[in-house]
Amino acid sequence: MARCEVCGNEYDKTFQIITQGAPHTYDSFECAIHALAPTCRHCGCQVIGHGVEADGRIFCCASCARLAGVAAVRDRA
Fold it and tell me: How far apart are CA 59 and CA 67, in angstroms?
């Protein structure tokens, strides 16, 4: 059994995600999201979907990007 690197749980159904060439082991999608999902620069929520990227910053939606001063964004672009 492998151990989840977020919660420490030993589990027979862990999985690995390789990011930037390094493998990471998790026991659930919840732990993987907690470890890997970017954070919205305006509201602080974890961006699980596509999100919006502007000026090198990631936002959960166009509304948060606009509230952070990014004018030329919209959802569903």
Answer: 10
